[in-house]
């Protein structure tokens, strides 16, 4: 866990800190040279508290480090995924059809008119907006891809952007897995001008009534030269299998070639998982309301945003090729994203997102 990404993963996944708190905590731990689980587990509380952003963060970090350290010594899995005895331990994706899995991953949409959308202002930070932006973009530039692929590719773009931002403001201490060459040999696809390494899910039939129900499952050929998938090339997009974006940092930790099947489940694969991406977007678009209303409000707010983005991309897709639409998307995102302070002060900060700004970018009629 020598780099920033691994430290942040530990703080969010094991110490259960929110992303903004994890970033602040990681900064203090790096300054104190406490960057491995072993170091954290051996550190006394007073030392850790002095290096931490808050006392609460220090307690959570120390408890998680000791727990993971003990699991390592016993040879147990490190990740803490408690499963209730009342719930099935079977992966739900294994007992659901691909069509059901994909239907559950669809993002909500809005019933409001575009005029009504212009008056809506949401409060969020930049990462969820970028995730929603990229997900909706892929739906238009690669319409053959299922919702899980749109979310996976979008999560990769969001993660790569966060890694680049962290390096620019001095939060990254080591080279990323991408720069170290992990994922070489895997196919590439461009999303918002970023190169994303992908796995092809040959044989994955996700539509409710596919025309061809007997497709051969073709494994990835490790000796085949990596291909770059173009949005404009009919031979690349027509019949293209569902794609999953590779999580290169996870691939680096596993240190083994990825294997993908036609199953609806992606458990155990070093990829960006669609359900995690969808949940992350939903949690970003609520406000201070009673707890009972929050879940419905998240769906509603995200639906408004998705409809505004759909309107933007649909207006230009009639005159722009998918590749040209992809090239413009990043500049559009930069124009509408919430305004926050530059540098570390703005990392994870929230700001206003005016849907009118998105709608104003539509192609003039």
UniProtKB/TrEMBL annotation:
Residues 210-224 have a biased composition (Basic and acidic residues). It comes from Aureobasidium vineae. Residues 227-237 have a biased composition (Low complexity). This is Impact N-terminal domain-containing protein. Residues 73-94, 210-237 are annotated as: Disordered. It comes from the Eukaryota.
